[in-house]
Design a protein that fits this description.
Blueprint: E1 6-11, H1 15-26, E2 31-37, H2 43-50, E3 54-58, H3 66-74, E4 82-87, H4 92-100, E5 105-108, H5 113-124, H6 147-160, H7 168-182, H8 190-202, H9 206-222, H10 226-233, H11 246-261
Parallel strand pairs: 1-2, 1-3, 3-4, 4-5
Length: 265
């Protein structure tokens, strides 16, 4: 089945970033950069003119910053692009604000461009004319409900558990949960598949990914949110006997999200 080209607008004041992105895009099949701008005031006109599938939006744009652009996008009536915000800020409040204003994904700089393009493809799957067979699992035949809604839900859960967004383990857990929601068989393949995939995306080793996740869960258990842990896991895990393993945590969160949203597909 025909699959439309993913059209992208880049908004970034760093010409090196734009040039590097464009060079990567040339090597990606089915991807086209239709415009780029260096100032926040030029983003809305470019989006209106080009109607892109994806907007790569930097937080530190001159004149109007990234959050200001997101606020303006909220008031537009045309089709809004999937928006990936890039930033040097890792503070929880900034990430949460960006997501609440409509960002579909938040990516810290320096950017791993291989990972960025994988995220672009992942986030646009639900808007394209065909789906990879790997997504057609567990009765799911779309982008698994709304990727933005799902990402926000995972971020909210991790934040409530006391796992701050700036931890590597936070990002790795989110990626792993997303992967397992889309393919439940991965819950038993963390070491063989999930850790290596995430490691490749972030330029790390599989061992460092596993360790960062473990450290993030240690923080969650040490902060003593036993009420929330019990609520999330419905007493499946005896939290008084120690924290959940990486696989237990990821599988249980993925199960709950799948059940919650299964009626949306």
């Amino acid at each position: 089945m025909y699959e439309k080209v993913i059209e992208i607008v880049i908004a970034d004041s760093d010409t090196n970033f734009i040039n590097t992105f464009c060079e990567y895009a040339k090597g990606e099949i089915g991807v086209s950069v239709v415009d780029y701008v260096n100032s926040g005031q030029d983003v809305i006109p470019s989006v209106k003119r080009n109607d892109p599938d994806v907007l790569i939006l930097d937080a530190l744009l001159p004149v109007v910053d990234g959050l200001g652009v997101l606020r303006r996008l909220q008031h537009q009536t045309y089709n809004k692009p999937i928006t990936i915000m890039t930033s040097n800020f890792s503070q929880d409040i900034y990430v949460q604000t960006a997501m609440s204003l409509g960002a579909d994904y938040y990516l810290l700089k320096p950017v791993n461009f291989d990972f960025l393009f994988e995220q672009i493809r992942f986030l646009t799957r639900g808007t394209r004319t065909s789906l990879p067979s790997g997504l057609k699992t567990q009765g799911v035949t779309s982008l698994l409900f709304d990727s933005k809604e799902l990402s926000e839900e995972i971020t909210k859960i991790l934040h409530q558990l006391g796992i701050p967004a700036h931890l590597f383990g936070h990002n790795y857990l989110r990626e792993a949960i997303l992967m397992v929601v889309h393919d439940r068989t991965l819950a038993t393949k963390l070491s063989k598949t999930v850790y290596p995939v995430i490691a490749r995306k972030y330029g790390k080793s599989a061992a460092s990914v596993e360790k960062a996740m473990r450290n993030a869960l240690d923080i969650a258990w040490e902060r003593g949110r036993t009420d929330l842990l019990n609520e999330l896991f419905a007493y499946t895990i005896n939290i008084n006997k120690g924290r959940a393993t990486n696989s237990e945590f990821i599988a249980l969160i993925a199960d709950k999200l799948s059940l919650k949203y299964s009626g949306h597909s």
